[in-house]
Design brief:
It holds the Pfam family GIIM. It comes from Alicyclobacillus cycloheptanicus. The chain is built from 15 helices and eleven strands. The protein is of the alpha+beta class. Strand 4 and strand 5 form a beta hairpin.
């Protein structure tokens, strides 16, 4: 069996297992699964997990081992087999994550935990086994880090709710340092509602308690699930599924909840309902030992003419739209927020501003920009292309200006006009954020 057939075989077998687990969990909401550990180290599961880890790439953890080193020098088969043996013998122990601080737009930093590759492999295999069980319990209001769900679906849910359900108020909520403040004991209690396999619970506890290394110093972890870990998004969804369940069971009359990981918004008909929703959220967060960020959380009016709110990189508000026949009407639309637009402009400036870029060929510049441009196109035109393209055209204009400056500095004696310069870039395959040409 060649490599392609082997990959397809392991993929099919892993999906069959996931489907079986999902159907079993869906059939009985109170069932607890007691024999899962042996599924984690199954050969088909581990090899499919390795395929996904390798596709995600990522940098090395505290041991300095890279995916490239495993593929080209150490050997993939040996690496997967040794990991399987450690799991079978019960001698697998995770290493601390390497912490890297990522700058945020507000000047603060977001801590990112980077596990070693072996931990990523075991976490991915565990996620593949656990995810279908908890997917059977997750609610329709949750969209983040779930199979066949995306930010586009969350944004379109907001648009449909406001446009067709007479919604005029929104509670836009931010949770302070969510991933870093999840209490381990309460998280494990929620996991135990579905999983009774002690060895799987031990794995999760070890990952939570593994600690992190920052600037050469080891730090213990008593709270939180590190952002960057493969298993972390699933654990985060399990914890906030408590909120989703409480809301669906008791408070849907107040408004519609839309949640993407730790970002959430509640869409209400009346201001009084929105104010009650805030009190409910505070009570649930207190029980979960979480805190609402008062600076970023707010009550927003959605009436036409009001400024709206930002959510998932988009700004959401009523906009005047032209109907056939020249009639103007207000429709609730979503387009890139000011913060997102600034990030895009800064990214273009970062790619083209340094003087060492002058040594790049035009083809190198195009090859560097195209994946970035395609990513923006895929994300910002997916949910509301008609509203977004008008704003993304400004990014196309900004890219054109930066590329013209690059050309003029690189070819100082060039007499090409601006249109000729951009024609040269388009001839090399330069993409457009709007899809209409740069």
């Amino acid at each position: 069996m060649n490599a392609v057939n082997t990959a397809n075989y392991t993929k099919v077998k892993a999906r069959e297992l996931q489907r079986t687990l999902y159907l079993a969990a869906k059939a009985n909401a109170k069932r607890r699964f007691h024999s899962l550990y042996d599924k984690v180290y199954r050969s088909d599961v581990l090899w499919e997990a390795w395929r996904r880890v390798k596709a995600n790439r990522g940098s090395a953890g505290v041991d300095g081992v890279t995916i490239r080193h495993i593929v080209e020098e150490y050997g993939e088969e040996q690496f997967v087999r040794e990991t399987q043996d450690l799991l079978k013998k019960g001698t697998y122990r995770p290493l601390p994550v390497r912490r890297k601080n990522i700058p945020k737009a507000d000047g603060k930093e977001r801590p990112l935990g980077i596990p070693v590759i072996q931990d990523r492999l075991v976490q991915m295999a565990s996620k593949m086994v656990l995810e279908p069980i908890f997917e059977a319990d997750f609610k329709d209001c949750s969209f983040g880090f779930r199979p066949k769900r995306s930010a586009k679906d969350a944004i379109q849910r907001i648009q449909r709710t406001v446009n067709y359900e007479n919604t005029y108020w929104a509670v836009d909520v931010d949770i302070s340092g969510y991933f870093n403040n999840i209490p381990h004991d309460k998280l494990l209690m929620l996991v135990k509602q579905r999983v009774s396999d002690r060895r799987v619970l031990k794995l999760i506890r070890q990952w939570l308690k593994a600690g992190y290394v920052e600037e050469g110093l080891f730090h213990e972890t008593e709270l939180g699930s590190p952002q960057g870990g493969v298993i972390s998004p699933l654990l985060a969804n399990i914890y906030l599924n408590y909120l989703d369940t409480v809301w669906e069971r008791n408070y849907t009359h107040l408004g519609k909840l839309v949640r993407y990981a730790d970002d959430l918004v509640i869409l209400c008909h009346k201001k009084a309902d929105a104010l009650k929703a805030i009190q409910v959220l505070k009570a649930v967060f207190q029980r979960l030992e979480l805190r609402m960020n008062r600076e970023k959380s707010k009550l927003v009016s959605l009436w036409p003419g009001k400024p709206g709110f930002d959510f998932l990189g988009h700004h959401h508000r009523y906009m005047p739209m032209m109907r056939p026949g020249g009639r103007v009407w207000n429709a609730f639309r979503s387009y890139p927020s000011k913060k997102s637009m600034k990030k895009m402009r800064d990214r273009v400036r970062e790619e083209l501003a340094p003087r060492n870029r002058l040594y790049w060929t035009v083809q190198q510049v195009v090859s560097r920009l195209n994946p970035i441009i395609q990513g923006w196109t895929n994300y910002y035109t997916a949910a509301d292309p008609k509203a977004s393209r008008k704003f993304l055209a400004k990014i196309d204009w900004h890219i054109s200006r930066r590329l013209i400056l690059y050309w003029r500095k690189k070819y100082k004696r060039s007499r090409k006009s601006q249109s000729e310069i951009m024609k040269a870039f388009r001839g090399m395959g330069l993409k457009s954020v709007t899809g209409y040409g740069a």
